[in-house]
Amino acid sequence: MIEQLITEGLAIGACYGLFGVAVAIIYKTSDVVNFGQGEMGMISTFVAYHILTQYGLPFWLAFALTLVFAVLLGMFIEFFFLRPAKDPTVLGLLIITLGAEMLLMGLASWKWGAEQKDFTFPLSVQKLHEPIPGLVLNEWSIGVFVLTALIMVLLFLFFRYSNLGIAMRATQQNQNAAKIMGIKVERVFSFTWGLSSLIGAVAAMFFAARSVLDPNFMMEPFMRAFAAAVLGGLTSIPGVVVGGLMLGLIENFFGYVWPVWKPIVAFVVIIIILTIRPSGLFARHYVKKV
Amino acid sequence: MLTIKNIETWYDLIRALHGISFEINEGDIVALLGSNGAGKTTTLKTIMRLLDNDQPEKGTIEFMGRRIDRLDTEEIVGLGISYVPEGREVFPELSVMENILMGAYTRRDKKAVRQDIESLLRQFPILGQRRSQQAGHLSGGEQQMLAIARALMSRPKLLMLDEPSLGLSPLLTKEIFTIIRRINSEGVTILLVEQNVNMALKYSDYAYLMENGRIVRADKPEVLREDDDVKEFYLGIATEQSVKGYKRYRRKVRFR
Fold first, then answer.
1. Is the ipTM of this complex over 0.90?
2. Best CA proximity match to A20, nearest among A247, A209, A216
3. What is the DSSP letter of A259?
4. Is the Cβ–Cβ distance between B220 and B31 less than 8 Å?
5. Interface residues from chain A to B (CB-CB < 8 Å)
6. What is the mean pLDDT of each run of 10 residues along chain B (256 residues)?
7. CB A47 within 8 A of CB A68
8. Is the pTM of this model over 0.90?
């Protein structure tokens, strides 16, 4: 039973972590928490659903097309919603993302209706496997673990070794200097949004497979993922994933002992972290020398 | 090489540059001098197009016969102008190596970039020793060298330095100026903005003096050094005393 709680907690935690990474990538480059992130994932999942039900394409193709859509959606929102803001403040941009969130939610309700739908996902939570004797995992968790690990490794390589990745880090540290280096700062932002939207869409599809698909389904996972990101420290990507795993575990154990209180654990965690260590457990923050 | 004609730059409703013109010849070290708020940094930022998109409001900037006053910053970098900003502005959480790599962001010739890095690290051995350290942990002088090295990575024809001596000890200042002269001897034209007028006059071939957004003197350093106003205001050599025997805060002077 206890192993079950741990594996299940880690799996859902990895999913929170993955979605938290999407939030963290945007936060790192522009200091803005993208409150529309959940709904961007939601719309992408609906697009996957639409492709699957209307055109009957195989799942992997629908998945790939959805990822392309997600990237375009992220860039679109950056380009048409955030970039036109004149002399933006962080608060202003934050409100814009809130507006984008409502807009996307309305759009989804209008196009696909508010009733709940079943998102057919090839990896089911019911089918169990035992890769190592004694360790029982369901297909869904295996999928989450593999994809999260893969995405983390790719992100690490990207931010460490590719020119664009280093340029993204440079831009987040000093926008002005980045401009002087000849980095097209705007292009970096739009790429950031695309990347974040892509990762968010992957996580959202996994969330949809567990619950149901309706325009509200990403609200809670988003808040949880945000809590995970705050727990790990929004500025450190591995920290966010570890935060997600921790939150998944805490939540699952707590839910086992007091099922009624399970939904609020994440928010209690946010409050505790914000009082004790506001920058998060793993944040490395560079303090500018004056 | 760089010809600036009558540029006017505004910060919203405030005119920072009241139509300045000057010229930089290839191979020179040109100093742009003046006190705080004279418009030196604004001039550099105007050239780099780092201000609002509609600045400069008037005037033209020509670099190697091509107008650049409406180009984007990255195009200007690509044409061969490099800028070392005031206060160094290295990327604090990138390693020294990554900082240098960012300087070559506009370049596509990977092999040559690697060679340039090697030769730069030979020129600045201290950066070589610290290549994997975070730039934010370097000392001020090392950061200044890193900022210069980073700016050189784009293989500039014109290097603009904004107060390279800011916050450095006299000894380090001297070292930085020696480096600047060496870079110049390798064929890079240099535009130097300085408050340390004494040093700047020692190392430059030509100097412009700015005040309140205008250029008020333009001459060779030897001449400027002997100028009474320059002597008094910038080199700190008092000459005049008032009738009662105390030094007036400011000699009455009208430039232009």
1. no
2. A247
3. G
4. no
5. 163, 166-167, 169-170, 173-174, 176-184, 284, 286, 288-289
6. 86 84 88 84 87 81 86 86 88 89 86 88 87 87 89 89 86 88 89 86 87 83 78 66 60 56
7. no
8. no
